[in-house]
Every structure is written in structure tokens, then in C-alpha cells.
Structures
1.
Amino acid sequence: MAQSSVEVLLIILLLVLFLIVFALLFYLLRKTSDLEKITKQRRVVPLAKKGGPLLGLLGREIWDTLSDQSASSERNTEIRKRYAYILQRHIEEIVEQGIYDARKGIQEEPSPEASIGGTKGEILSWIPAKYVKRLYNLGRNLSSGEEREDVSETLKSEVLEILSVIGLDTEKPDMGQTVLENIS
């Protein structure tokens, strides 16, 4: 009889221990799901576009404002001064992408929009797709090394054409040469 009571006591003890472990697991599972709900509620949605405005204008708005040369205001002059560096960096980025892609043997034309870092933060820059395609292809041609002089001259004239569209050709006529020096 003593032996059977010990067996019953052991079985009861195992059942109690099993219930305690089960209760602890249930408690941990519930707390974990509560924490996940709180985390999901606090999650911040990132902005779709990187880069900020330049005097209140973003990307294509900057290009459209500068290409409308009939509106020559003090604000447009200030935008031109600030945008020259951003545009130069954007052009360099496109040409460098062409050089890099040609070396890797891929062809993936970059987007007309790019977030370019400046002295006052990132600016969202935009260049029309036809110029992006030409600059990208010139970069691909620069990587081959053949006829580098001709490609360099074509790049300079392409940059000058872009600058003339937005009225920067008189202010930065040597930007094409600067782009070539920076990517070499």
C-alpha cells in the first residue's frame, strides 16, 4: 500500500509540474504576442522619396522652373546657383553608372530622378530621360577606352546642351570638363 501511494503521489506531482510548465509557456506566448502588437503599432512608414526640396521645389519642379527662362526672378537666380552643383553631381553619377555597368557587362539605365547630397542636405534632382540615356551610353563608351577623345568631346557638348536648356550654360560653361576630371 505504501508503494502504490508513492506511485500516485509521483503521478500527481508530474501532472502538477506539467501544468506549471504549460502555464508558463502560455504566459510567455501571450506576452510575446502583446509585444509584437505594440511594435507593429509603433512602426513608422518610411518616405517614398529620398531627398528634400531646393527652395521648396523637388526634382522635375526644379527642372521645369529653370527651363522656363522667361521667368527670370531673384528666386530663379538663387535656384540656378544652388542647382549647378547638384546637377553636376547628378550627371557624374549617371556617367559613372554607365562606366560601372559596362565593366560588369550589364545594361541597366538609371532613373531620371536621384537624391544628391549637397552642403545643405540631400536634394531630389531630375534630368529628362533622353539626357539620362545619352549620358549613360557615353559613360559606357568611356569605359571601353577606344576613341576616348571623341567620347569626351561628345560628353562635354551633351553637358553644355543640358546646361543651355536650364540657362546655366553661361554660368558654368566648363562643367563638362569638370565632370570628366571628376570621373577619371
Note: Strands lie at 113-118, 121-126.
2.
Amino acid sequence: MGSFWKSHFVTLCLLAIDVIALSILWGESWELIRAFDHRFARPINPKDLYLQYLPALLLIWVAVLAFFHQYDHRLRISSLNQVSDILKAGFVLLLVTLAFANLTKRPTEQLANRVIMPFCVGATAYLYASRSLLRIVKDRMRKAGVGLTRAAIIGAGETGRRVALRIQTHPEIGYELVGFIDRRAAELGATIAGIPVIGDGSRLVDLLLQYRIEEVFLAVPNMDQHAALDLVVECEAANVHFKIVKNDLLQVITDRVKIDEIGDFPVILLREGRLTPAGALLKRAMDLVLTVPLFILSLPLMAAIAICIKLDSRGPVLFVHDRVGQDGRIFKLIKFRTMTTGANPYAVAPSAQSDPRVTRFGRFLRKTSLDELPQLWNVLRGDMSLVGPRPEMPFIVEQYTPWQRRRLDVPQGITGLWQIAGRKQLPLHYNLEYDFYYIRNWSLLLDIVILIRTIPAVLLGKGAF
């Protein structure tokens, strides 16, 4: 098999599967609407017309999917961005197909909008299912050591070691860590935390070729920009991908900025982190639209959980705790009780299933996150939102520095970026970076994506104790 086929085999297979799946969905959408139209005696153009337009539509659909990165399987797109891209692709598919359907005004040549709607819904669901399955397969292959990218880290300091730890503890990312490259190689020794120091980078191209490096991470804070550009050139000479690691909170804060000028001097305008009034209204509206039916539907389940808690251990069914909400307001957070009645409510939260403070049924509730269900009432009351940073206890907030208090600029939430990115498997200091990213990049679509990603996180019990 030639190099082209080796590097594009997965993409071509995925493209072929998409063409087949979209063609089937197109035909079945016509069949579905025809069945309804027949019942109500409404006319619909013959299926042959829809099949006649199918080749042109397939070209348009594939172009839309390619634009939204659905064939960039070699890119390590986060699951969050993947869901966002799929939702955007589904919406654009709807727009372009409706536009195509209305190119002609002749009734006998028109495609019915009522056929296009179920097709686009089905196409979006198919994309989510197929890409999720592909991600699962790729993750398992990478964990088995198949298809790994050989990587090196430039910089063996704290930032570089954090990157190394992430690569080592998450094989599904898909990297085989070859070692560190650091100008202090002679002083550092042969290994750092069991990872080889393979060179000082003085002859970087030769080093990259010698160790067959495919990707390099630059993890050196405050490196001179000319030195960094030299590294980029050397990596390009060795046909090696080059990535720069975000290594401090300033880069998170300035992740999305505007550039202005004062005379000839460029200046950075930090984006306002607080929600606009319109954004806050939209967020609250979505909370109510989703929470009201969800709360009503979950009442029988919550009643059953309450009975099980009473049968399992002595004490109240609910655990009510002071937490700090948006703008520093104190509210009563409600959860199902999962710990013994003698446990200190302000002690360190359980970090393992074997924690003796957790009751037998409490372990199940924490593992499935069902202990959080009563917080739907907090959302209805306006104390919290469905999505946002997790609310902290008052004594923790009292220790916040001014920049940490920015977490309180938005409504606190039941779920958020930190939870779906690994939840309690991640250290607390990562939580702040995720929270700042959420605050700076908030949109209704981001909330929807986080809610969608919360479903598999809860079902799989990732990081829950």
C-alpha cells in the first residue's frame, strides 16, 4: 500500500460510509414523509426526483462535513469541539439543503422541506454516533499501543513535566513519549521521572531524525520569540509537527482578545468575562425549558432514591449545604445524602469509593451522579444553572485571590467543563483553567455541547466517587 493510501485510508473509508449512510437517510426520509402524506392525502414529488438530485447533494454535504473537520481524523480534536462541530455541521446541512431545494420554482421539480427536516436531524444523530464510535475504537487502539505518534517535549521544567504526565496517564491521546529535549541536558542526567533526556537540542534536526520524532511540544515558558521561531523552522525541516503548550493562566485569560492601536503601538483588549444581559437571559431561558420537564419526570426516581436512603442508613434524605453562587450570593445547595450522619460536612470530599464516610447506597449514588438530582430545584429557584463552574463552600471562596473570584461572574452549575474532562480525576488547579475558558468563551452552543457530553460522562461514571 502506497504512502497516500496509508495516510488517507481511514478518511476514505469514513467518506465511503458517510456517502452510503446519507444516501440511505435521504431515501428513508422520503419514505417517512410519504407515509404521513398518504394518510393526509397530501401530494409529494416522486422518489426518482429525490434520487436524481442525490449526487449533487452528496457533493455539497461532504464539503460541509469536511469544512467542519469531520474527516480530519489525524487531528486530536477534543470531544467537546467534536460535538460542537457536529451540531454546526447539522445546522449548515439544513441551510444548504433548504437553499438547494428552493433553487427551482417549478412545483414538479421541488424538494419538500418536510423531507429535508427529518433528514438533517437523522444526519446529525448519525454523525454523533459514528464519530463517537470512531473515537472509542481509536482510544482502545491507542491504549493497546497501536497507531501512536512518537513525540518529544522541548523543556523539562514544570510545564514539560505536566505535559509528560498527561501523555503517560492518558494513552488514548495517542502519543508515545520518546523523551525530553532540554538545553540543560548535561545537568539533568539521563532521565527525569523515568523519562529519557535525549539531547540538548543543539542539533535539533539530526536529533529528531535519529529518534524518528513525529511531533514536538514546546513547553518552555517565556522563551524568546526568535528562538521559538528557529525551533519551528528546524521542525519543519525534519517534517515534524510543532505545538506550543499553554503554560500559564495569562494565556487562558487572553485566549480570545481584540487588538487595537494607540498610535503605532498595538494593544490587547481583554474580552469581558461577565455574561451580557442578553446572554444571561438566553442562559436562564434554556435552564427553565430543560429543567422544568426534567424535574417533573425525575420525581418518581427521586422518591425511590429517598426510600432507598432511609432503608440503607439513619439520617435525613437530603444533604443541605451553604454554597457561594453568582456574585458571591450564599444559597442552600441540595443533594441526596451519601455519607454517614456523623461525617463533617466541611471536611475534604471523598476521593475514593472505599472512603468509610460514604454509605453503601451512597456509593451507588455518587458513582452514577444521581445524588445531584435535587439540584434541579436549585436551578428552578435561580440559585444555579445547568452548566457552569461548580459552586464552592464559603470558607474556600474567602481564600480566593481577586482573579479567582472571576469564577463567580457567571452562574454556578451542576455540570461544566471540568466535570466532563475527567471530573475528579483532575487536580483542582486544572479546574480553574477550565472555568476561565468557559467564562471567556461562553455561548449557548457551548452549554448545549457540555450537556450532551455530560450524558456519556455520567453513564460511564468517569472520575465519580
Note: The first helix runs from residue 3 to 39.
3.
Amino acid sequence: LLPTIGTVNSNALKKVNKNVRFHKEDYLSIPSSFLSFLLGFIDGDEYIHSVLNIGKITIYKDNRSPTCKLIINKTDLQEVLFPLLLHHNLFFLTETRNNQFNTAMLILEQDIKRFDNIPNIIGFTMAEGSFFIKSNNDGCFQLKQRIHTSLFESFKLVFNTDRKIDIEKNMYNQFSVSSKNDIQTVINFFSFSGLHPLVGLKGISYLK
């Protein structure tokens, strides 16, 4: 039986396809070759919709560039699509889409409602973070820990940056920002978001 990703709101299944949870085994009949095709064809069309039997087709009528999008709600992602991808061990081919999928999985599995809860970033920073001045006098904020790709990709959402996550010695992920805009975002997060302040040595190094 397909698992459920994260916690599904008790009212969500009532609003969408009521039979999704009770007939999830039927979705296992969808060929993995189709799901693989789906990963390479993000927007979707009527054929994808007819096979999956989930989501809603939205047509944007534009004489110059008409488009058609398949929009799949959170509950169907949790109950059907994401579990199917995991069941067949399928993944996106591009790093960007794969990172987006990993971030979505983290948010669903940990039932995250706000980006500043990914996870307790204040505590995580006090344990694994550092603030320092580079040789060119630029300020730098850095987080480093054993590899956890989806967690570190989520930091990019929190701090609104597209900086690449580094991997060191195939053992550690490192998130590091130093541009003026990125550092201002870091300051806004730690100083003005209403979270518990940094304390101890990390608090001192941040204030410096």
C-alpha cells in the first residue's frame, strides 16, 4: 500500500477525491514508465490528467501562447503522486527540480507551516552555524553539517537565496552566504523576525 507523506488535514480528503485513501492500491497499476515521463513533463495535459485521475486542468487562453496546466493539490501529492514516485524509485533529471522535490518532501514530512520553522534554525545555528569576516572584509554566515540535502535546500527558501549548497568530502553539506543582500536577509531573520535570540558565543559572534 502506498504510504502517506506527512500529515494530511482531517478535512482535506473530504474536500477533494474522497476515495483516494481507500483505493490507493489502484494507483500502483499506473506504469512506472508513465511516471518517469511525467517527471520530464512538468506542465501536464489532458492525457496526464486522464491517467492520474487527480488534479485540475486549468486552461490559459492566449492567442499568442495558449497554455494548459495540471494543478495537483497538496493532499493528492501526499496521498498519491509523491508516494508513487518513491514506490518506483523515480527522480527528476535536473538538479533544480530534484532539490525542489526534496524540499517539498521535508515540508510535508515534518508538517512545516512556516519557513522559519525549518527546523529550529536558531538552535541549529547555535550548534552548527558560524558568523565571521572574510579576508576581503565581507561578512559571512555559514551552516555546516553531515549531508542532509533537503534540509539544506530549505535554508535557501528561508534566506531567499539561490546560492548553491556545497558538498565537502561527500560527507558534509555547507550553506554559505556573504553578498550584501544575503547578509541583510540574514540580519532581518535573526534580528527582526520575533524568534528567540542567539545566545552564548554564537550570539556574540553575530553581534560583532
Note: The first strand starts at residue 56 and ends at 60.
4.
Amino acid sequence: MLEFNVSRTIMNILYETPIFKMCLALALLGHTTPPNCQTYLFF
């Protein structure tokens, strides 16, 4: 349960990160995302 809380906290931090929002938007639009974006989305 602790691991879930930690990962959820990390996700909350990422959602507040502008580059994460930008990368997520690009991914949803179906564009090819740079490697650093894939790191944000699929770590």
C-alpha cells in the first residue's frame, strides 16, 4: 500500500510539471514523442 501511495504522489508531481502535460498532449494527439517524453510517460 505504501508503494501505491508513493507512486501516486510521483504521478501528482508529474501532472503538475509543464513538460509532462506537453508530452502527454503530444502523445494523445498521436505525434512521435521525444525520448525524454517517453521517460516521463512510461518510467
Note: The chain has a mean pLDDT of 69.
